[in-house]
Write a structure and sequence with these properties.
The complex is a heterodimer.
Chain A: E1 2-10, H1 17-24, H2 29-39, H3 41-45, H4 49-70, H5 73-78, H6 86-97, H7 101-107, H8 114-118, H9 120-127, H10 131-149, H11 155-163, H12 167-182, H13 196-210, H14 212-215, H15 228-234, H16 239-242, H17 244-258, H18 265-285, H19 289-293, H20 295-309, H21 314-330, H22 337-354
Chain B: E1 3-13, E2 27-33, E3 36-39, E4 55-60, H1 62-67, E5 69-76, E6 84-92, H2 94-97, E7 105-113, E8 117-130, E9 145-146, E10 156-171, H3 185-214, E11 218-228, E12 234-247, H4 264-269, H5 281-285, H6 308-311, H7 336-340, H8 346-355, H9 358-366, H10 368-377, E13 384-385, H11 387-394, H12 408-412, E14 433-434, H13 444-454, H14 459-473, E15 490-504, H15 515-534, E16 539-550, E17 553-565, H16 577-602, E18 633-635, E19 643-645, E20 648-649, E21 660-674, H17 680-708, E22 713-723, E23 727-739, E24 748-751, H18 758-781, E25 793-794, H19 801-813, E26 831-834, H20 838-849, E27 857-859, E28 871-885, H21 893-914, E29 921-931, E30 937-949, H22 951-983, H23 991-1009, H24 1015-1040, E31 1066-1067, E32 1076-1093, H25 1101-1123, E33 1128-1142, E34 1147-1163, H26 1164-1172, H27 1177-1183
Parallel strand pairs in B: 9-11, 20-22, 24-26, 27-29, 31-33
Antiparallel strand pairs in B: 1-4, 1-8, 2-3, 2-5, 5-6, 7-8, 10-12, 11-12, 13-14, 15-17, 16-17, 18-19, 18-25, 21-23, 22-23, 28-30, 29-30, 32-34, 33-34
The chains are: A mainly alpha, B alpha+beta.
C-alpha cells in the first residue's frame, strides 16, 4: 500500500517560506521533514509526519517547477503557469538570489568558470554550506554576471531591473560581478579578516568613483570595468613621492595639522614617507591588470598593516587620511587635484572600512 | 451566412527554442475555422515574435460558430523539412455570440501542446459580427446563455424557470480508431481534443435550441459530462435547467451590444420589486440555500437481464432486449409491478398503496398524458424510504431496521438477488429508500388509484394541487439542476431520490442516432420521477447524473431531491414585465395556495399564518396518513404548525432562509467492496447485486456520523459509486447541519447480543462512553445547543406492531447493524448499534476514527458553511489528487474500507495543513471524486475552495442574526439601490417599489393559506393552537439563533486584496465571490485537455507530471477568462480527471475536463466608493481590472 501520486495545486500557488528556505539550503525532502518536525509545526497544526512529508514533497516539486522561472525573474511576473501574488514573487526571488556570506567570501574575485564550479565541493566542505546550495549560489553569480556583462548603463540598476532584486542585494551582486570581472584577489591569508560586506562596500566605492560610468552615466560602456583613462592619469600622482620637495612639504603640512590631535603622532611622523609612498605606488601601478588584482592586498600590506602595528585607532586613521588628502591640494606644484580627489576619496573610504580586526 | 468571425494574431512570447543551432525560432501561425485556414508571415529568429497580422475573416454560419472552436496553431518554419508544430490554442467563440457576454477576446493565451504542455503564449484578438437571423428553422441557438452556476446567476433575475433540458451526442473515440495505430500520440490527442470541442459545441447548440423552443433564453446549472466508453465510443451529454432570465442592472459596458433580448430596457420598467424573488444577488449571496429535505433515497439497480426482453413496450426500450445490454430494470416490466406488492414484504406493499397520497393521485390525473404513457413502461421502484425504521421508531422503538424491503420484484428478477436491501433507516434519520430495480412500483398507475382512495384531502385540495402541478406535469421530466432557488420557489422538500442502472456498453453503431444512450437515461429519469412521486413531490431539484465505467460495464446514476415548487416561476406563457408587476401578488397567491395544498395534508393549520420562511421547506410534502415510508413525524419545532420528519437528506444547498442551530460540517461515508473479476453480463450482474448493499451501508454510515455530530439534516448529498475490476468504491459526501425546525437527533446506543460476559459488557460500556463523549464534544464544537422544547411527537400512523416484528426479523437476517428496541431509552436514544459481529465493530470504529477538523477549520461540501458569515475576501481554490496503490491483493472488505477511509482522511488532513495560514477558514464545496483507474489503484481527486472568515464577527453572530432577518430585505434593497444608482441611474426609481412589494407578497401569503382542508386537518389545527402557547417561547429563541445565511455581504475587509497591476484571476467552485459583486457574466468556460508524456521520469514522475498538468489547466482557464475581460471564474469544477500511467514505458497520459462561468466582479468596497459618485466611470475601470 503506498501513495503513488500526491499532488496539490492551488489557484494561487501556495509556498511555505520555511520549506522554501530548506529547499534553497539544499536539504533533501527527508531531511527537511526532520527539520520541520523539530520545528514543532506538527503540534501547532495537529499534523502527522505523513502529512508533513506530503506537503514537503509537494512544495519541493513546486519550487523545482518555479526554478526555471527564477532564473529569469522578469518572467515570473508575466508567466501564466503560477499565480503568485507580487509580494510572494519578490520573496521568492530575493531568497533565491540570497547567498551565504561565507560562501561568497570563498569565490569572491574568482573567475566564474567551470573550473571554479568543480571546486565547489571543497568550498562546501570548508564553509558548511551544502553543495546544492553552493551550486545554486554560484550559478546565480554566473547568471547575473553573464546578463550584466553585456549591458550598458549603471551596474546596480541593471541588476535590479533584470533580476528584480531589492536594492541592497543588487548592490551585493554588483560587487560580486565587479570582483569577478576584475579578478580582485581576496583569498590571501592577510585578507581573510575582511568580510564580504567589507569588500562589497569597497566595490561600491570603486564602481561609483573609478569606473567609466562614474564619470558619465551616459557612457555606453558599462561600469564593470575601471576607467582606463583615470588609471592612466593615476601615474601622474607619482610626483608626490618622486619629488622630494613635494614629499617633505606634504609631510610637514600633514604633521602641522595633526600635531596634538592624535596619540600616534610620532609614529605617523616617522612613517609618513613610507605610507605616502605606499598609497601613491598603488595608484601608479593600477594601470596594470595584475596590480589591480592585488589592489586590496597592497592596501593591507602597504598601509593598513603598518598602521595597525603602530596601534592607530580608526579615528587616527580618519584624521590622517583627511589631512593627507587635503594637504596635497595646498602643494604649489601639485596639479592633479581632480585625479587625486577621485583616487583618495575611494582609498580613504576603503581603508577606513577595512581598518578593523 | 449570418456571422463574420475576425481574428488577428498580434504577437508571441516565451516561445520555445525550436532551432538548436541559433537557439531561436522562426515562428508563424495558422488560424483555422471550419475548413478555412489563414497563415501569418514567418517572423524569423525570435522567441518573442511580433506578427501583428491583418484581420483574418471567416464568413460562417452561426451554427458553425457554435459548434467549432477557432484553432490557432503556432509552427516553426523549416525550409528543408516539415514545419514543426509548437502548439495550439483552441478558442471557444461561444461567449462572443451572446450579446450580454463578452464582446471581444483579447489577451495572452498559452500555446499548448499535448506532449510538451504550455510552450509560450500568443496574443490574439477575436471578434464576431453577428447578423440577426430570424429564420424559424434555424439550427443554431446563438444568444442562449449558459451558466454552470446552479442557482440563478447573481446579476440576473429569473422570470420563468422552464425546466429540464438534456441532450447527448456520441461519436467514435479517435483514440480507438484503427488509424490511431499509425499516427503519433500527438496527432491522436489532438484529434480527440478537437472532436470533444466540436461535440460540446454541438451539444450546447442543441440544448440551446431546446431552450428556445421552450421559450427560455438561458440554461442554468449546465452540467456537461464525457463518458469515455473506450472502444464503444465517446459520449458527451449535458443537462441543465432552462430559464428566462432578465438582467438586473445594466453596465455601461453592455451598452455596446444591442441585444434584442437584453433586458436593459425592460428593466427599467420592470419592477425591481421582485428582488425577493430572485434576482437579487444579495439573496443569492448567501449560499446556503434552501432545501433540506429528508432523505429518502431511491435506489434502483437495474440488473442486466435477458428477462426483459419480452416486456418492454416502449419504443426506446425495444432495443433493450438485446442481450448485451443490461437492461435496467425499470422498465416496463409490467410483471414487475405486481411484484412489488409481492410477497416478501407485505409491509411494503402496504406502504405503497397507502402511501400514495392524494397528491400523487391528483397529479396523475392532471398529467394524464405523459404519465399514462409513462407508466406502462416503467415500473418503478421506488423506494422508499426507509421508512420503516422510522415507523418503528415512532413507536418508540428504535430500530434500524433492515428492512428489508426487499422487493419482491427483485426476486423475480432473475438477476437480482433478493438480498438487498433495504432501506435503512436508522433511526429515523435516514430515510433511504432503496428500490431495487424493479420493485416498486410506485407506479403511478398503481398508486394513483390507491392514493385516491386513501386520500382524505378533499377534492379541493386535489384541485389545487392539480393546478400547481399542471405546469410541471406537462413536462416529461420535472427536474431542476439548480441547488439553490429564488426565495419562495422551493416550498417543500421530500427527500433524496436516486436511481442507478448497470449497463453493458456496446459499440455505438450510428453516431447520429444515439438512441441507446438516450434510452438508458430516459429510463433512469423516469425512475427518478416516479420516486419523487412516491414522496408526494412533483419535482426533483438539485438533480444530477453521472456514470462510472470500467471496461464494458457502465453504472449510470442519477439523483436529486424530491420537492414541491411554487409555480410562481413556472407559468406557462411568458409574462411580460409590465404585467408582472401588477400581477405578481396574484400569481404569488396562487402559488401559495398551491403550497398550501401541498402542505395541506402535512401542515394542518395556520390559516392565518404565512409559511415561515425558515422552516417551510422542512415540512413534509407527503400525506401524513399515507407516508411513503415509515417516518417519525413531529410538529415543526419552528412554527409548530406543520409536520416535519426527524431527519432530512437532500442534494441541494441549504436554503438561505433556513433556520439552523450552530455550524455544519462535512460528513462522509466511505466504502469499499471487493468483487470478483468477471466479464460481460456476469460482471454486470455481480455489480448490480453489490450496489444495494453498498448504498445501504453508505446510508448507515452517513446516519451514524450525522448522529455522532448531533445533527439532523444533510445537504448537498452526493453519492458516488465507482466501479473497478475487482472492487466497488462508494463515497457519500454531504454537509450535516442541525435544522432548528427538526427534532434533535437521539444518541447512539450500543448493544451487545451476549450480555452474559462481563468483560464484554465493559467493553461495550467503554465504547458507549466514547461515543457519548464524542457526541458531546461535537455538539460543543459545532455550537449545537438547540432550545429545549417540549416534544410532542405525533406518531406516524403507520407503525403497527406487525411491522415492528417484521423489522426485527429483517434485522436478524442481516447481521450488519441491528437495532434493538429499548423502550427505556425513549426516542432520543433510539439509535442502537449492535456490535455483535466484526462488521459492526468496524463500523463503530470507523465512526470514531474520523478525526475532527483542526482548530480554526470548518469544512462542508455545500456552497458555504451554514452558520458562518463574515467571509473575508481571501479565497484559495485548489485541486488535490492522490492515487493509492493497494499492493496487497487479498484484502478483506474491512481492510479495504480502512484503507480507503484513511486515504480520504489523510487527504483532508493534508489540506488542512496546507491551508493553515488561512485560519480561521472553511473549506467549502469540497468535492471528492473517486475512481479506480486500474486494478489496485484508487484515485481520489478533490476540488474545493478555502475561505477565511473573521473570527470576531462570528462571535457577534448570535446577536446579529436576530436582526438579520429583519434587516435583510432592507439591506438588499439598499444595496441594489446603490448599485443601480451607480450603474444605471434611471432605474433607481424602481427601487423604492421593491420593498413595498416584498411586503405585499408576504402579505398575500397568508391569505393563500386559508384554504382549508379536510376535517382532520381542522382537528389538528385545534390541537395545534392549543399547543401554541407553549411553543411560543421556543420560536422566539430560535430567532436568536444564528442564521446560516450570511455571507460576506456586509464584509468589507479586503485584507487580501492587493491592488496589483497583474491580472489576477480568481477561481472558485462557488457561485459567488465573498466581499465582491459579480457585475457581468462573460460566458461559459468548458475546456478539455489531454496531456501525454513519454518521459515520465524526467518530468518528475507521475506526481510531477500531473502537478504541472493541473497547473497548466488552471493557467489556461485563467488566461481565457482574462482574454474575455473577466477577473474570476465561478462555479468552477473539474469534471473529469482521467489519469493513466505506464511506468515501465516511462509514459503517462491524463485527460482533464473543467468548466465554470467567466465573470467580472467588483469589490464591494470599491463599489461603495464608486457609489458615492453616481457616475459610472469608476465602474468601468473596475470592470477592466481583470484584463
Amino acid at each position: 500500500m503506498s501513495v503513488e501520486l500526491d499532488v496539490f495545486v492551488g489557484n494561487t500557488t501556495i509556498m511555505d517560506k520555511e520549506v522554501y528556505q530548506l529547499w534553497l539550503n539544499g536539504y533533501t525532502v527527508n531531511d527537511a521533514v526532520k527539520v520541520r518536525i523539530e520545528g514543532g509545526v506538527m503540534e501547532e497544526c495537529e499534523a502527522s509526519a505523513d502529512v508533513l512529508l506530503s506537503d514537503t514533497m509537494d512544495q519541493y516539486r513546486t519550487f523545482q517547477m518555479c526554478e526555471r522561472l527564477l532564473h529569469h525573474p522578469a518572467k515570473l511576473a508575466n508567466q501564466l503557469l503560477f499565480q503568485i501574488p507580487p509580494d510572494r514573487q519578490a520573496m521568492l526571488i530575493e531568497r533565491y538570489y540570497a547567498f551565504d556570506d561565507l560562501f561568497v567570501r570563498e569565490v569572491l574575485g574568482k573567475k566564474l568558470s567551470k573550473g571554479t564550479k568543480k571546486d565547489l565541493d571543497d568550498v562546501s566542505a570548508k564553509t558548511g554550506v551544502s553543495l546544492k546550495s553552493c551550486r545554486r549560489q554560484f550559478d546565480n553569480f554566473k547568471r547575473v554576471f553573464k546578463v550584466v556583462e553585456e549591458l550598458k548603463g549603471p551596474l546596480v540598476e541593471n541588476i535590479r531591473q533584470h533580476f528584480l532584486l531589492p536594492d541592497q542585494l543588487a548592490r551585493d551582486y554588483a560587487a560580486i560581478v565587479f570582483f569577478a570581472n576584475n579578478r580582485f584577489e581576496t583569498g590571501k591569508k592577510k585578507l581573510l579578516y575582511l568580510t564580504f560586506q567589507d569588500f562589497a562596500f569597497c566595490a561600491g566605492q570603486l564602481i561609483n568613483h573609478w569606473t567609466l560610468g562614474a564619470v558619465d552615466s551616459m557612457m555606453e560602456d558599462m561600469d564593470v570595468d575601471l576607467d582606463k583613462e583615470f588609471l592612466q592619469d593615476l601615474k601622474d600622482l607619482k610626483i608626490l613621492i618622486t619629488d622630494k620637495d613635494l614629499l617633505d612639504q606634504h609631510k610637514s603640512l600633514v604633521c602641522t595639522a595633526l600635531r596634538g590631535k592624535t596619540s600616534v603622532f610620532n609614529e605617523m611622523e616617522a612613517n609618513f614617507k613610507n605610507l605616502s609612498r605606499g598609497l601613491v605606488n598603488i595608484a601608479a601601478k593600477l594601470i596594470n591588470a595584475k596590480d589591480v588584482r592585488d589592489f586590496f592586498i597592497d592596501l593591507v600590506e602597504k598601509f593598513i598593516e603598518p598602521c595597525r602595528s603602530d596601534k592607530w585607532t580608526s579615528i587616527d586613521m580618519n584624521l590622517f587620511l583627511t589631512h593627507y588628502t587635503n594637504s596635497a591640494h595646498i602643494l604649489d606644484t601639485f596639479k592633479h587635484h581632480a585625479v587625486w580627489t577621485r583616487y583618495m576619496g575611494v582609498i580613504k573610504s576603503c581603508i577606513l572600512r577595512m581598518y578593523h580586526d | 451566412m449570418p456571422g463574420k468571425l475576425k481574428a488577428k494574431i498580434v504577437a508571441g512570447r516565451h516561445l520555445p527554442v525550436m532551432d538548436r543551432a541559433s537557439d531561436l525560432t522562426d515562428a508563424f501561425v495558422e488560424v483555422k475555422f471550419g475548413n478555412t485556414t489563414y497563415k501569418t508571415d514567418v517572423y524569423p529568429k525570435s522567441l518573442n515574435p511580433q506578427w501583428n497580422s491583418e484581420w483574418f475573416k471567416f464568413e460562417v454560419d452561426d451554427e458553425d460558430l457554435q459548434d467549432e472552436p477557432l484553432q490557432i496553431t503556432v509552427l516553426d518554419h523549416d525550409t528543408y523539412s516539415a514545419n514543426d508544430a509548437i502548439g495550439k490554442v483552441y478558442i471557444d467563440i461561444d461567449p462572443l455570440l451572446c450579446s450580454e457576454a463578452a464582446t471581444v477576446i483579447s489577451g495572452w493565451l498559452p500555446i499548448y501542446d499535448t506532449i510538451h504542455g504550455i510552450r509560450g503564449e500568443i496574443n490574439v484578438l477575436v471578434k464576431v459580427d453577428l447578423f440577426n437571423d430570424l429564420n424559424r428553422f434555424r439550427q443554431s441557438s446563438c444568444g442562449v446563455k449558459f451558466f454552470c452556476t446552479t442557482s440563478i446567476p447573481r446579476c440576473y433575475r429569473a422570470i420563468m424557470v422552464h425546466g429540464f433540458v438534456e441532450e447527448l451526442v456520441v461519436n467514435e473515440d479517435p483514440e480507438y480508431q484503427w488509424i490511431d495505430r499509425i499516427r503519433t500520440p500527438r496527432a491522436s490527442n489532438e484529434a480527440r481534443q478537437r472532436l470533444i470541442f466540436l461535440m460540446s459545441g454541438e451539444l450546447q447548440r442543441k440544448i440551446g435550441l431546446k431552450v428556445l423552443e421552450m421559450g427560455g433564453n438561458a440554461v442554468v446549472g449546465y452540467l456537461q459530462c464525457f463518458d469515455l466508453e473506450g472502444e464503444s465510443g465517446l459520449v458527451v451529454r449535458a443537462i441543465g435547467t432552462a430559464c428566462t432570465l432578465e438582467k438586473i442592472s445594466t453596465l455601461p459596458s453592455t451598452a455596446t451590444h444591442q441585444s434584442n433580448s437584453s433586458p436593459s430596457k425592460d428593466m427599467k420598467d420592470s419592477p425591481q420589486a421582485a428582488p425577493s424573488t430572485l434576482g437579487c444577488r444579495s439573496t443569492h449571496s448567501s449560499p446556503v440555500h434552501s432545501a433540506s429535505s429528508r432523505l429518502s433515497q431511491g435506489f434502483s439497480v437495474s440488473v442486466p437481464t435477458l428477462l426483459f426482453a419480452g416486456m418492454k413496450p416502449r419504443h426506446r426500450s425495444s432495443e433493450a432486449p438485446r442481450a448485451r445490454q443490461c437492461r435496467p430494470v425499470f422498465g416496463e416490466e409490467v410483471p414487475g409491478i405486481p411484484l412489488s406488492s409481492g410477497p416478501p414484504t407485505p409491509l411494503r406493499a402496504q406502504t405503497f398503496s397507502s402511501f400514495s397520497p392524494s397528491k400523487s393521485y391528483s397529479r396523475q390525473s392532471s398529467s394524464s398524458d405523459t404519465e399514462l404513457s409513462l407508466t406502462p413502461k416503467t415500473v418503478r421502484m421506488f423506494l422508499c424510504p426507509s421508512t420503516p425504521a422510522l415507523e418503528s421508531i415512532s413507536s418508540s422503538l428504535p430500530s434500524t431496521h433492515m428492512p428489508c424491503h426487499l422487493r419482491p420484484g427483485m426476486a423475480s428478477r432473475s438477476s437480482t438477488p433478493p438480498p438487498l436491501h433495504v432501506s435503512q433507516s436508522d433511526t429515523a434519520m435516514l430515510r433511504k429508500s432503496v428500490s431495487f430495480s424493479e420493485e416498486l412500483l410506485l407506479a403511478a398507475s398503481g398508486m394513483g388509484s390507491g392514493g385516491s382512495a386513501g386520500k382524505e384531502a378533499g377534492p379541493l385540495k386535489a384541485l389545487l394541487r392539480q393546478q400547481t402541478q399542471s405546469a410541471l406535469e406537462q413536462r416529461e421530466y420535472p427536474f431542476f439542476t439548480l441547488t439553490s432557488f429564488p426565495s419562495g420557489f422551493l416550498l417543500h422538500v421530500g427527500g433524496v431520490v436516486s436511481a442507478r442502472s448497470v449497463k453493458l456498453l456496446d459499440r455505438i453503431h450510428n453516431p447520429d442516432e444515439p438512441e441507446t444512450r438516450d434510452a438508458w437515461w430516459e429510463e433512469i429519469r423516469q425512475e427518478i420521477k416516479s420516486h419523487a412521486k412516491a414522496l408526494g413531490c412533483h419535482a426533483v431539484v438539485g438533480y444530477s447524473e453521472s456514470t462510472s465505467i470500467c471496461e464494458e460495464v457502465c453504472i449510470l446514476s442519477a439523483s436529486g431531491t424530491a420537492a414541491i415548487l411554487s409555480s410562481r416561476f413556472m407559468q406557462d406563457g411568458p409574462l411580460d414585465t409590465e404585467h408582472r408587476l401588477s400581477r405578481q401578488p396574484l400569481v404569488f397567491s396562487t402559488g401559495s395556495e398551491r403550497v398550501e395544498g401541498d402542505m395541506g395534508s402535512s401542515a394542518s393549520l395556520g390559516f392565518e399564518e404565512v409559511v415561515p420562511p425558515g422552516c417551510g421547506f422542512c415540512h413534509i410534502p407527503y400525506d401524513e396518513l399515507n407516508i411513503p415510508f415509515p417516518a417519525q413525524l413531529t410538529y415543526c419545532y419552528s412554527c409548530r404548525r406543520s409536520k416535519v420528519p426527524d431527519v432530512l437528506f437532500t442534494t441541494i444547498d441549504l436554503p438561505a432562509d433556513a433556520n439552523i442551530t450552530g455550524k455544519g460540517c462535512l460528513i462522509q461515508a466511505r466504502l469499499c467492496r471487493t468483487k470478483k473479476k468477471a466479464q460481460g453480463e456476469g460482471n454486470a450482474t455481480a455489480i448490480s447485486n453489490l450496489l444495494p448493499f453498498l448504498e445501504y451501508e453508505l446510508h448507515t454510515q452517513l446516519m451514524n456520523k450525522l448522529k455522532l455530530r448531533g445533527m439532523n439534516a444533510l445537504f448537498g448529498l452526493r453519492i458516488q459509486i465507482s466501479v473497478g475490476e475487482t472492487m466497488l468504491l462508494g463515497l457519500a459526501s454531504a454537509t450535516g447541519v442541525y435544522l432548528t425546525a427538526l427534532p434533535g437527533p437521539g444518541g447512539i446506543q450500543i448493544a451487545g447480543k451476549t450480555p452474559s460476559d462481563i468483560t464484554y459488557e465493559q467493553h461495550i460500556s467503554n465504547m458507549q462512553k466514547k461515543i457519548n463523549d464524542t457526541i458531546a464534544k461535537n455538539k460543543d464544537l459545532y455550537e449545537i445547543n438547540p432550545p429545549e422544547v417540549v416534544e410532542e411527537i405525533i406518531g406516524s400512523p403507520i407503525p403497527e406492531p406487525r411491522q415492528r416484528s417484521r423489522l426485527f426479523r429483517s434485522q436478524s437476517e442481516s447481521s450488519d447493524e441491528v437495532s434493538e428496541l429499548d423502550l427505556s431509552h425513549g426516542k432520543k436514544d433510539a439509535f442502537v448499534l449492535e456490535i455483535d459481529d466484526t462488521d459492526a465493530v468496524e463500523d463503530i470504529h470507523a465512526l470514531l476514527t474520523d478525526s475532527p477538523t483542526p482548530q480554526g477549520f470548518y469544512s462542508c461540501n455545500t456552497e458555504i458553511m451554514p452558520g458562518i458569515q463574515n467571509w473575508t475576501s481571501a479565497i484559495q481554490m485548489f485541486t488535490s489528487v492522490r492515487v493509492f496503490r493497494l499492493n496487497n491483493a487479498n484484502l478483506t472488505n474491512q481492510g479495504l474500507n480502512k484503507i480507503f477511509s484513511d486515504l480520504c482522511e489523510n487527504l483532508l488532513k493534508s489540506l488542512y495543513f496546507k491551508l493553515r495560514s488561512m485560519v480561521p477558514c472553511c473549506l467549502c464545496h469540497l468535492n471528492f471524486t473517486v475512481a479506480i483507474p486500474e486494478d489496485e489503484l484508487i484515485q481520489v481527486a478533490v476540488t474545493a475552495v478555502a475561505m477565511s472568515f473573521d473570527k470576531e464577527q462570528i462571535l457577534e453572530n448570535g446577536k446579529q442574526s436576530g436582526e438579520k432577518t429583519l434587516t435583510k430585505a432592507i439591506t438588499e434593497n439598499d444595496e441594489q439601490l446603490q448599485f443601480n444608482l451607480e450603474l444605471n441611474p434611471e432605474s433607481s426609481h424602481a427601487n423604492p417599489l421593491s420593498s413595498p412589494k416584498g411586503l405585499s407578497e408576504v402579505g398575500s401569503h397568508p391569505s393563500a393559506r386559508d384554504r382549508c382542508s379536510s376535517w382532520i386537518e381542522q382537528l389538528r389545527l385545534k390541537a395545534h393552537t392549543i399547543r401554541r402557547g407553549s411553543v411560543k417561547t421556543t420560536s422566539s429563541m430560535e430567532k436568536a439563533s444564528p442564521l446560516p445565511e450570511g455571507r460576506s455581504r456586509s464584509l468589507r475587509s479586503n485584507r487580501s486584496y492587493s491592488g496589483t497591476s497583474v491580472a489576477v484571476v480568481k477561481m472558485t467552485p462557488l457561485s459567488f465571490i465573498p466581499g465582491a459583486k459579480i457585475i457581468k457574466y462573460l460566458g461559459i468556460i468548458n475546456m478539455f485537455f489531454i496531456r501525454e508524456t513519454t518521459s515520465l521520469r524526467e518530468e518528475g514522475g507521475v506526481s510531477g507530471f500531473l502537478h504541472s498538468f493541473i497547473a497548466e489547466v488552471f493557467a489556461m482557464v485563467r488566461a481565457h477568462v482574462a482574454a474575455l475581460g473577466g477577473n474570476a471564474v465561478v462555479s468552477y469544477s473539474m469534471k473529469e480527471c482521467v489519469f493513466m500511467e505506464n511506468p515501465n514505458k516511462n509514459q503517462a497520459q491524463c485527460l482533464i475536463n473543467v468548466s465554470g462561468d467567466a465573470v467580472i466582479f467588483v469589490r464591494e468596497s470599491e463599489l461603495e466608493a464608486a457609489s458615492v459618485q453616481p457616475q459610472s466611470t469608476t465602474h468601468t475601470s473596475n470592470g477592466g481590472e481583470g484584463t
